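Appendix B.2, paired examples.
Example (i):
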Amino acid sequence: MTPDELATWRKSERERLIAAREALDPATVESLRRRIDGHLERSFPGLAAARLGFCWPIRNEYDARPLAQTLRDRGAVTALPVVVAPRQPLVFRTWHHGVALADGPLGIPYPATSDPVVPTVLLLPMNGWDGAGYRLGYGAGFFDRTLASLEPRPVAIGVAYEFARMATIYPQTWDVPMDWVVTERGVYRRDPGGLAFLGAAATGEPSRLASPVCYADEIAPDRQP
């Protein structure tokens, strides 16, 4: 596939998957959110000690704000991304209810004046995802650049709906795979052979690899106040 053909294909797939997501009714979106929240909260208890970067939801994406508030109440630092310039890594600024927001690109809010923070964990929405853990985003490459620029690299947890799984996104050299993928079904870990389904901590779905799915040590707990 040539670069132009790949760009056209990704654009078409992105539009298809976003349209399917936007067709979900509010009750379904809320039900999916609660199921994903349960998997994240139970499977990654170390998130309560993390500096967590997450995204303001758009177009029926998974809404991480309720989980972020729960984690913040337990001691986590929560932050939203800020676009500095095209083709540059994102920066993150702390955010919680009460922090003033400004309108950014695509009308997505961001905290303009709060303190910067370097995340230890990123919770990333995905329009699509494949069996190797690669993420189909919106095409600007901000998160790939951000993950490649941060040292140490944050733990990357991709979050999406199960129906958005693809055979492949045809990853390129600049694409950065997720360390974990979480859907309403449960938790996937990226292994050398691709994603391995570990189970559903929130529902008790049997797992061929781990039960229960608890990864406190996988999330860096060394947050700074």
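Example (ii):
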Amino acid sequence: MHALFVYAHPEPTSFTGALKNVGVAALKDAGHTVEVSDLYAEKFDPVAGRHDFTTVANPARFHYQTEQAHAQETHGFVPDLAREQQRFLKADLVVWLYPIWWGGMPAILKGWFDRVLAFGFAYADGRRFDSGFFPDKRGLLCLSTGGTQQRFSDEGVYGDIHKVLWPSQRLMIEYLGMNALEPFVAYGAPRVDAEGRAAYLAQWRERLQDIAHDAARAVPAGVRNASQ
């Protein structure tokens, strides 16, 4: 299995950074390969525009999806987008790691979805959800929250975490035809002590080891042996 970690946090020593580091090590220890898109370190630009393309479909009026489709047909994406698209295509598992921000993902990560997962490349008319391009890929959200688990419940002030994450799970991951795995949520990360954080990291390692084990079982023996 090959995994792509799309990591969105500006501070390497953050708890999100620890989740990234532990996750990469867990999959590599299990014999899998991992690539990391470190959006802040790589200075990824989240703002969409004509600068996304080396080609022009309509010079008179800018329509983003039209330009995306044209770029897909003519190899007209700028290098940073082409790089991220190739990283995405190679991955069997895509993990998005971020701190939840105003109920959603940070702008830099939302911009990654907007710019990288382009019309024509990642979805098209009639190619969404069950007919999407990527039924063989799995997607996993790994996020930390400032609020406690109780606050992200039906009785809590924020509402159930599954409702909060519905736009990302359903309208982004499943929209692409991917298998959206149950998110991993580290609740109240700034509020827990060192022991609590260590417990979260151990749970995250175990979760990824289970995913890796499932991936290994899904590969036919002959195919697995031929690749060794």
